[in-house]
């Protein structure tokens, strides 16, 4: 059916319109594995235009793990191809009795038998489909065995990219859909070409200049643009000595040394064939990895270290097991943690030789064994396939203490820190993607030691929405009165978090990669040039206030979708052990004030008043009918 | 024979630097849209990246001449252990593949080095290639001033004469034209 231009004005595209469709068409009692659950592949509003890095596919559905809305995203080439085929979204409903794949070739759409692809690896499937269609230009998004077997952390893979988090691959498998292949050869039109192209060229120019000027004083992965350029850099001192190993338990402050650096350099450089990009983006955040003896695959970001660190192993192991995990199609954050969780339960006698029968004795062998078992859902693997939260419930016997690194039932990055950071507290609690990297970015993670360094930093900080944010940063000290947890103040934290989140929501509705926008410091896209991009591309009148209003609407509607499914304040907590030093009173105040700032009540439910301001009266009516919102409360 | 100087526009392609992003295709199709930049569509691009990530093949190719017929038989190159697809290096717009043809009309496309008024400093694909896989240079070549050019028919006739001699060609011409008239 045709896209309603009215909805585009209200919600832009991508995550915005995906959320609107899920609100309208999926009643809140719908189970993730119900035929009535929708699986939406949405393109961002700017996908298919020459806007640099506008290549994201936003996949939205309800997560089997969190039971809330999931909106994992992937880069690559799929979204622009779908735009060129003439579509904004592909929406999947129902269930196929047999495994099928979808072939979209411009106006021709076929549902094709995929029984011969059953059990095939995700990367392998992409190649097989392109080959059998005789269409090397087709872009394919596919699931592996994990998705077919509804593993709660199964991913959807596409070339060097994947939509990994929250088990959307499981929903795709539940629908009997192995893959979607797309080929498009139609034009995408621009409303005001000259103006739009000028903006694109400015972004390109800025990227060139910015890449020559890494930000001093921050760790290498935060100094440049792009998602952390794991594939480019060998120096892993920061991750290996700050992040936790095993089941997010052990910090190894002295791990990194010259010898390990040399060994890891050898591991990385011997298998990394080439640094590669997504569609129309100069950043090289991914790499082709060819480990002798196993098939080639592509890797990105932190998946390089998650298996290595979960297994207390080395980089060579990490590259090897990631190949199998990518073909199976599992999330590289959750999967290693689930395996480390199982081994910890075994060490402590909660899982015994009975459940673990057949497990090899060597550490690395155990990880392969667990991965195979989870993906095939054999024995204990069938339980672990639900992720640490649900597995712990099923295992019982105190296992829930071992599922200690979750927010809203979802595994987090393995970070355990000392002093509560109020900005991060709010982001962990309220980030609806349930992944810190999808809300943080624009404000430095920590203060710079000297005033001179801070003054230098703010000099060309054009991205701030308001000059006062510069002042917050200038006054932020490592120690003393102006340091965490009481500075930035609660009010400042609200503004800082809101800005960071807003930028992610703009990206997710426009389909621009966070790596060029909301994630790195001082990116080429920001609140001051985005409105002109939207208006010159589409002809929709848009200024900063207008864009802010649209993403507030999208963000609030997303909250309403989850609130309608039962999410409340009690769910908005970081892992208990995330910080050693906690401040319950301050934390309560932070959440109180942030909810107010967002126009939500004390339970995190959008108020009638704020819904009205955002032209979401139909939402408050629905919430009132269900007794979730009543006038007195709001 | 006297020598003359000729300006040649050249795009240097370093395949090792290509990261496969296809920005060149995007901006080429956008620049050549009418009005300029009003739409884009890599399927109309006059540069295409032959891209097979799992085989580490990244090969930007610019559209060259139109060829009515495809070649008899094909070549497949292996370079440094990497197999390049059939016709990968060829610049022709030809019936054997979909490259370098308008997707709707099938009309052939040819790279024009982004001729523009005022002139672009470099072709757009080069400007948008931040990986520097594409770089531009202008070189001067000394070429011999050409003699009067032979036409296609003359070239063909000359090769027939070389092979069969004047007499046979003349006889054949006479016989054929008589039977046509007859």
How does this model look, in words?
The complex is a heterodimer of chains A (634) and B (182). Chain A is an alpha+beta fold and 634 residues long. Chain A is 41% helix and 12% strand. Chain A is built from 25 helices and 20 strands. In chain A, strand 15 and strand 16 form a beta hairpin. Chain B folds into two domains: 3-144, no CATH class; 150-182. Chain B is built from three helices and seven strands, in the order βαβββββαβα. Chain B has helices at 23-31, 124-127, 152-181; strands at 3-13, 39-40, 47-52, 57-62, 78-79, 82-83, 134-144. Chain B is extended and about 65 Å long. Chain A binds chain B through residues 48-50, 52, 77, 84, 123, 127, 136-137, 159-160, 184-190, 193-194, 196-197, 204, 207-208, 273-282, 284, 288, 290, 295-298, and chain B through 19-23, 26-27, 30, 33, 35-44, 52-56, 58, 85, 98, 103, 128, 130-131.
Give a brief description:
With 634 residues, chain A is of the alpha+beta class.
Biggest interface, which chains? A-B, 43 and 31 residues
Number of helices of chain A: 25
What oligomeric state is this?
Answer: heterodimer
Q: How many angstroms does the end-to-end distance of chain B come to? A: 48 Å
Q: Which structural class should the secondary elements of chain B be placed in? A: alpha+beta
Whole-number total of structural domains of chain B: 2
CATH architecture label of the largest domain in chain A: Orthogonal Bundle
First and last CA, distance of chain A: 37 Å
One letter per element, helices H and strands E, the order of chain B comes to: EHEEEEEHEH
């Amino acid at each position: 059916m045709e896209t309603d231009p009215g909805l585009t004005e209200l919600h832009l595209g991508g995550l915005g319109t995906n959320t609107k469709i899920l609100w309208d068409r999926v009643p809140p009692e719908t189970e993730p594995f119900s035929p009535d659950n929708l699986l939406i592949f949405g393109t961002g509003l700017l996908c298919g235009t020459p806007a640099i890095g506008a290549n994201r596919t936003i996949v939205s559905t309800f997560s089997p793990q969190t039971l809330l809305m999931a909106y994992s995203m992937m880069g690559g080439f799929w979204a622009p191809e779908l735009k060129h085929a003439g579509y904004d979204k592909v929406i999947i409903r129902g269930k196929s009795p047999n495994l099928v794949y979808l072939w979209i070739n411009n106006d021709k759409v076929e549902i094709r038998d995929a029984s011969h692809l059953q059990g095939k690896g995700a990367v392998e499937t992409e190649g097989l489909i392109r080959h059998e269609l005789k269409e090397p230009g087709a872009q394919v998004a596919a699931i592996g065995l994990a998705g077919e077997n509804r593993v709660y952390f199964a991913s959807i893979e596409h070339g060097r990219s994947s939509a990994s988090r929250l088990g959307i691959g499981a929903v795709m498998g539940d629908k009997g859909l192995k893959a979607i292949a797309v080929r498009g050869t139609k034009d995408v039109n621009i409303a005001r070409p000259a103006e739009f192209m000028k903006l694109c060229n400015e972004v390109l120019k800025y990227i060139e200049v910015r890449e020559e000027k890494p930000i001093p004083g921050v760790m290498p992965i935060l100094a440049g643009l792009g998602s952390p350029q794991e594939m480019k850099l060998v120096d892993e001192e920061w991750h290996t000595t700050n992040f936790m190993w095993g089941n997010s338990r052990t910090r190894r402050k002295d791990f990194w040394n010259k010898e390990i650096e040399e060994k890891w350099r050898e591991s990385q450089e011997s298998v990394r064939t080439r640094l590669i990009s997504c569609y129309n983006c100069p950043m090289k955040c991914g790499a082709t990895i060819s480990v002798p003896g196993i098939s080639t695959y592509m890797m990105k970001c932190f998946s390089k270290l998650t298996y290595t660190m979960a297994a207390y192993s080395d980089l060579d192991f990490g590259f090897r097991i990631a190949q199998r995990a990518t073909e199976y199609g599992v999330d590289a954050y959750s999967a290693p943690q689930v395996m480390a969780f199982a081994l910890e339960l075994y060490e402590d006698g909660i899982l015994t030789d009975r459940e673990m029968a057949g497990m090899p004795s060597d550490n690395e062998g155990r990880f392969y064994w667990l991965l195979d078992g989870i993906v095939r859902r054999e024995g204990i693997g069938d339980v672990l396939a639900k992720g640490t939260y649900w597995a712990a419930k099923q295992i019982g016997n105190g296992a829930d203490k071992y599922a200690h690194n979750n927010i809203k039932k979802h595994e987090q990055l393995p970070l355990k820190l000392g002093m509560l950071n109020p900005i991060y507290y709010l982001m962990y609690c309220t980030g609806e993607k349930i992944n810190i990297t999808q809300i943080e970015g624009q404000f430095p993670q920590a203060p710079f030691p000297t005033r001179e360094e801070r003054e230098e930093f703010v000099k060309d900080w054009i991205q701030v929405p308001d000059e006062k944010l510069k002042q917050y940063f200038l006054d932020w000290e490592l120690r003393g009165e102006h340091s965490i947890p009481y500075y930035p103040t609660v009010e400042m934290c609200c503004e800082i978090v809101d800005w960071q989140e807003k930028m992610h929501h703009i990206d997710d509705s426009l389909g621009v990669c966070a790596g060029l926008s909301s994630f790195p410091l001082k990116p080429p896209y920001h609140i001051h040039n985005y409105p002109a991009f939207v208006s010159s591309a589409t002809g929709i009148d848009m200024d900063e206030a207008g864009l802010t209003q649209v993403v507030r609407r999208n963000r609030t509607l997303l909250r309403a979708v989850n609130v309608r499914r039962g999410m409340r304040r009690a769910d908005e907590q970081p892992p208990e052990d995330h910080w050693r030093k906690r401040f319950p009173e301050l934390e309560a105040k932070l959440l109180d004030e942030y909810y107010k700032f967002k126009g939500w009540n004390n339970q995190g439910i959008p108020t009638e008043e704020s819904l009205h301001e955002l032209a979401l009266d139909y939402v408050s009516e629905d919430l009132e009918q269900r007794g979730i919102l009543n006038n007195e409360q709001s | 024979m006297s020598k003359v100087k000729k300006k040649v526009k050249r795009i240097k392609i370093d395949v090792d630097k290509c990261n496969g992003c296809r920005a060149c295709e995007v901006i080429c199709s956008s620049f050549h849209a009418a009005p300029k930049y009003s739409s884009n569509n890599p399927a109309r691009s006059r540069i295409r990246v032959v891209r097979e990530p799992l085989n580490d093949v990244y090969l930007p190719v610019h559209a060259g001449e139109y060829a009515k017929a495809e070649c008899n038989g094909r070549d497949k190159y292996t370079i440094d252990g990497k197999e390049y697809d059939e016709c990968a290096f060829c610049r022709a717009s030809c019936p054997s593949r979909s490259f370098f043809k308008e997707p709707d009309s099938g009309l052939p496309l040819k790279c024009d080095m982004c001729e523009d008024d005022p002139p672009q400093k470099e072709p757009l694909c080069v400007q948008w290639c931040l990986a520097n896989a594409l770089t531009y240079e202008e070189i001067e070549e000394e070429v011999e001033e050409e003699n009067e050019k032979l036409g296609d028919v003359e070239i063909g006739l000359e090769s027939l004469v070389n092979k069969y001699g004047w007499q046979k060609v003349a006889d054949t011409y006479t016989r054929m034209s008589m039977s046509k008239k007859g």
